[in-house]
Write a structure and sequence with these properties.
single chain; alpha/beta; eight-stranded mixed β-sheet; 20 helices
């Protein structure tokens, strides 16, 4: 296997501009993450601590193994909306008692941990990660249930939470509820449906209806402890499997439960040398182009992600706009597809379709590095069959069964987003660099298309074209599409699993691949009909 070289010129103006721009974007990202960590704000953080309670990330830190990594998912959920950044829930993958687990932790400093539409979507996504990758699920519960004023957006889809818990259990994926405070109304079913339940004495309250609701519905007068206190559930109802003395005791019991699962990965472990790349990951800051019209040399990126910078390229002389080949990341063998120049022609599509089939035959996970403007258009390309060739690539991606992990490092436009395994194609994980953009096409192109259509409609109707109005509308559309294509906009809506520092790409991909190998890694045995 060959070792990739590098021609990066760190002294060039373009490299310096990219690096400075990327550092500025990372500072913006850090500011947003800080808002997520701040929860409901200083007043509510202080009140929570004064009650002797831990914050959600503090609970997570004590639950995880010492110095174990935690890959937080969707930290910018709900950014730019009416809701708090992070959507009042923390989700991610971490190691508990030497077992990789998915964690979902409510943030009680934000409206008592009540679930909002973005928080629901974020929690359901975490459950998908647990199911697809066969990872035990640990719920750190303190929630007042649905945010009632938004119940119309939560109640119907929220039922999937309970369905997912029962299905995970049926699949043999353990589910654990550690209850630190309120788990009321719909939230009461979290401990009710999990395989293992731990309640904190004097804090946990699990009931379908609290004292006011019970009095209104039945006329019965009861206090919190009688209805749903931790001790009552441990001694009377049997909802609690364990009664914890305090929060730290609850986390200790949770760790012991995971340790006793006798959990084993079903996928193969790392089989290759997991040595570091020979090229510096710091260079990725200067390689990531802020002007997405300028190409990124895919091999320069690959050389800073894969073990030892070793890469066995497949069809290097054919379909040169797409780099494909075999490598490993943290010892896990992978097949890799990376856009070298944004446009996908017939050659690139056919090359990708074949390579994806080979990866499935070899049962090797696939990494997609997206930087694409889509499939080529034009009379010559249509007549040559770009539709059927692009369809082959989409067919292969859609029916591939080996794990897919996607990283958007630049543009993700048009059907190129689909062919390179965008969110709609269910990659196990999808992450973005801060400079990336995702949309049906670039802002100028989209505004131009709408302008042409509007002009043609005016001419067909016998009306004069108003150039001033056209220019105004083009500018407004460009600004809208530019705003809606940004990484932060898409991440807030959970179209990715998080925006990451380019320098962390290898680590993030390694954690994702390790998680994927908790489940069996098997390739597709059949694909759809390929139009030849």
């Amino acid at each position: 296997m060959g070792i990739l070289g590098s021609r990066v010129d760190r002294s060039s103006d373009a490299f310096r501009r990219n690096r400075e721009g990327m550092l500025a974007k990372l500072a913006e990202l850090d500011a947003q993450v800080a808002l997520a960590c701040a929860g409901g704000g200083p007043k509510y953080l202080k009140r929570h601590h004064e009650r002797g309670k831990l914050l959600p990330r503090e609970r997570i830190e004590l639950l995880l193994d010492r110095d174990a990594p935690f890959l937080e998912l969707s930290p910018l959920a709900a950014a730019g909306t009416d809701y708090v950044v992070g959507a009042s829930v923390v989700t991610g993958i971490g190691v508990v008692s030497d077992v990789e687990c998915v964690l979902i932790a409510h943030d009680p400093t934000v409206r008592g941990g009540a679930t909002n539409p973005f928080g629901l979507k974020k929690a359901l996504r975490a459950m998908d990660v647990a199911r697809e990758n066969r990872l035990p699920l640990v719920n750190l519960v303190e929630s007042g249930g649905a945010d009632l004023p938004r119940q119309s957006e939560i109640f119907v889809p929220g039922g999937a939470t309970f369905r997912n818990l029962t299905q995970l259990s049926a699949l043999g994926v353990p589910t654990i509820a550690l209850v630190f405070g309120n788990a009321t109304a719909g939230g009461a079913y979290l401990p009710g449906l999990c395989d293992y339940t731990v309640l904190v004495q004097g804090q946990a309250k699990v009931f379908l209806g609290g004292p006011p609701l019970v009095k209104m519905a039945t006329g019965e007068i009861a206090d919190d402890e009688e209805l749903g206190g931790a001790e009552m559930h441990a001694r009377v109802s049997g909802v609690a499997d364990h009664l914890a003395l305090d929060e730290r005791d609850c986390l200790r019991i949770g760790r012991e439960i995971v340790a006793r699962l006798n959990w084993r990965k079903h996928g193969p472990g790392p089989t290759e040398r997991a040595d570091e790349p020979i090229h510096d990951a710091e260079d990725l800051l200067g390689l990531a182009s802020l002007d997405l019209r300028l190409p990124i040399d895919a091999r320069e990126v690959v050389a800073r992600l894969v073990d030892g910078s070793r890469f066995d390229e497949f069809k290097p002389l054919y379909g040169a706009n797409l780099v494909t080949g075999w490598a490993s990341i943290h010892g896990f063998p992978i097949g890799l597809l990376a856009n070298n120049v944004g446009i996908l022609f017939s050659e690139e599509a056919e090359k990708a379709a074949q390579f994806i089939q080979l990866a499935n035959r070899s049962e090797v996970p696939l990494i997609f590095l997206q930087n694409t403007t889509g499939y080529m258009v034009g009379k010559a390309y249509e007549q040559r069959g770009i539709i059927k060739d692009g369809s082959k690539m989409i067919n292969a991606v859609s029916n591939s069964r080996v794990p897919h992990v996607t990283l958007v490092i630049g543009s993700s436009y048009g059907a190129g987003n689909y062919g390179m395994c965008g969110r709609a194609y269910d990659p196990r994980f999808l992450f973005s660099w801060p400079n990336s953009k995702t949309a049906v096409m670039g802002p100028q192109q989209l505004a131009g298309v709408l302008s042409i259509v509007a002009r043609q409609a005016a001419v067909a109707a016998g009306q004069a074209v108003d150039d001033e109005k056209d220019a105004f509308l083009r500018k407004a559309v460009e600004e809208q599409i530019e705003r809606e294509s940004l990484a932060a906009f898409n991440s807030a809506r959970l179209y990715d699993d998080g925006i990451i520092d380019p320098r962390d790409s290898r680590t993030v991909l390694g954690i994702a691949l390790s998680a994927c190998h908790s489940a069996e890694v098997r390739g597709a045995r059949a694909f759809g009909v390929f139009r030849m």
